[in-house]
Amino acid sequence: MAGWAALALFVAAPFIGIYPVFAMKALCFALFACAFNLLLGFTGLLSFGHAAFMGAAAYGTGWLVRSAGFTPELGLIAGVLVAAGLGLVVGLIAIRRQGIYFAMITLAMAQMIFFICLQAPFTGGEDGLQGVPRGKLFGLLPLDNDLAMYFFVLAIFVAVYLFIIRVVHSPYGQVLKAIRENEPRAISLGYNVNRYKLLAFVLSTAIAGLAGGLKTLVLGFATLSDVHWSLSGEVILMTLLGGLGTFAGPVVGAFTIIGLQNFLADRVGSWVTVIIGAIFVVCVLAFRRGFVGEFIARRKKPAAAEPAAAPAQVEVHA
């Protein structure tokens, strides 16, 4: 029921006064946060360099659509392939390490990708890749209209969101959760955990790339901030704030952070980072499982208390 209500709200958003470009930007970051959550929340792998995959796909999609004449859907597919290819290379190097070593390798590789994006001539350097057209979907439907573009982004978001739910609930997803809970036990059961983790890493980077390509089409540019390490920290913040290991948590976290950034940017300027940091500290102290995680935990408490009452009733009748 909550899912249908959320979908209805998303469909109605442009008609109830929500600026479509803001909603599209938030959906792109929600997609990015869902990709990160698939890796950290359901597999237990903390990547400090996930922005690199989103940014590389943003540049790839933007350049192919603007300079090579690709249609939007082909540009997005190419961006996803770029991100997945980079994810495969980085994953093959990093996946054999655990904990902080895995995180540091992903950060180091992401810094290398950032340097390439800074130096490569087709990225525009510090000026970024500007003037990316939205084009026509399948060569027929113009996406210049914000409303048409919004429903295109929403359709992709819903499809990928359902895909992630399907993956997590599949036997493959159950193995990922087993690896997250107790990797040595998963190994003892005969699973090739490195292969499972590598596939999860590539899946996550591909979805992050899709988010980056969509963001470029929506806003019409790709910049160095898309591949900067600070964006990797931001997606961690979104996921933790919404609820790590929940399906809706990253979406709620992304909308919260993007909404705060848009609301506060004109009012407090550069202090927006300090205010969001303070809000994050308060939320961590008050909602340790994140907004959605805390909500789910409180709903489960009464249900968990019911079985405990049953034995007492049996004793009275006896």
TrEMBL record:
The chain crosses the membrane at residues 6-22, 29-54, 74-95, 102-122, 147-168, 198-223, 235-256, 268-287. It is a multi-pass membrane protein. It is found in: Cell membrane. InterPro entries: ABC_transp_permease, LivM-like. It holds the Pfam family BPD_transp_2. Its main location: membrane. CDD domains: TM_PBP1_LivM_like. It comes from the Bacteria. Keywords: Cell membrane, Membrane, Transmembrane, Transmembrane helix. Coiled coil: none annotated. This is Branched-chain amino acid ABC transporter permease.
